[in-house]
Amino acid sequence: MAKFTKRYNPDRSGDWNYGGNKWRLSRSKIDLFMECPRCFYLDNKLGTGRPRGPAFTLNVAVDTLLKKEFDVHRANSTTHPLLKHYGVDAIPFDDPRMDVWRENFKGLEYIHPATGLTVSGAVDDIWVGADKKLIVVDYKATSKDGKIETLADSSWEEQYKRQIGVYQWLLRGQDCEVSDTGYFVYANAHSDKEAFDGKLEFEITLISMEGDTSWIEPTLLAIKETLDSESAPSRSPECEFCDYREAAGKKLQQMHHAQKTGSKKTA
Questions:
Q1: 8 A C-beta contact, residue 82 and residue 185
Q2: d(Cα 177, Cα 133) in Å, to the nearest integer?
Q3: How far apart are CA 127 and CA 90, in angstroms?
Q4: pLDDT value at position 111?
Q5: Cβ-contact 179, 133 below 8 angstroms
Q6: ∠89-95-98 over CA atoms, to 5°?
Q7: Contact 134, 119 (CB under 8 A)
Q8: Where is 258: in which H helix or E strand?
Q9: Which of 6, 40, 141, 249 could, after both became Cys, cross-link 33 (CB 3.0–4.6 A)?
Q10: 167: nearest Cα among 150, 153, 151, 183
């Protein structure tokens, strides 16, 4: 078997940077801007992104299986038992556009009139309610103690709320009627079993969340201003990537200075 070596590329092709013909402002890039404007600038303007962590392949597997399960009900125009259990009067949205809307690197797209930015995002699922409004749905997988019935105690709550909001905003950009309420289908793997026995058992819960889109317009204006600037913006005080870059840079400079000074003394 050939050995695969993953290498970090610090210089992405200009086509994928701001101004390039393949660049899109994805939902995750908006989140990056909210997290740290400097990291966002380095990534999207200069083409040097953060090193990527390992792929969460178990989460991807759960997403794939949930999509297959809901697709059965989509094809039959039936209500999934999970929705019946939680009293949600909806069925999976059956529309040919779903194939594109759920595909990574394609997804929903909308050109923001005030900035000209093409904003994009791939949804996990969309349901349609009895009132014919579309409902944004996202799948999540984790493993933690207890039943997951709320996101109020999660450090991800604000990010998840933004995620739902961006998808709702994008759908409204397609002239769709969209519900203000979105849902998370949460798969929680139990780790309290006596034995593994070659399988994981998941508890599936449904969590509702009211989307918020009020922050999107001012954020897009700030992103456009940042991208058009020739100066890098300030870093976020909480950014660990910036902490690492600054700490490593200082130590390397100190080493270089010490080596340069030592070589002069011995000359």
A1: yes
A2: 5
A3: 6
A4: 96
A5: yes
A6: 100
A7: no
A8: helix 240-266
A9: 40
A10: 183
Rounded CA-CA distance 253/265 in Å is 18
Answer whether 219's CB lies under 8 Å from 169's CB. no
| pLDDT at residue 3 in the model | 60
Other residues' Cβ atoms within 10 Å of the Cβ of residue 182: 26
pLDDT of residue 91: 98
Can you tell me which residue has the tokens 């699922």?
125
Q: Which stretches in the chain have pLDDT values below 50?
A: none
| Count helices and strands in the chain by DSSP H and E runs | 8, 8
Give the chain's mean pLDDT.
91
List strands edge to edge, sheet with 125-129: 90-92, 125-129, 134-142, 181-189, 202-210
The pLDDT score that the predictor gives to residue 200 is: 80
The answer to whether 206 touches 83, Cβ cutoff 8 Å, is yes
Q: What does the block give as tokens for 10?
A: 């610090």
Residue from 66, 61, 27 nearest 185 by CA: 66
Q: What is the pLDDT of residue 127?
A: 98
- Give the pLDDT score at 199: 79
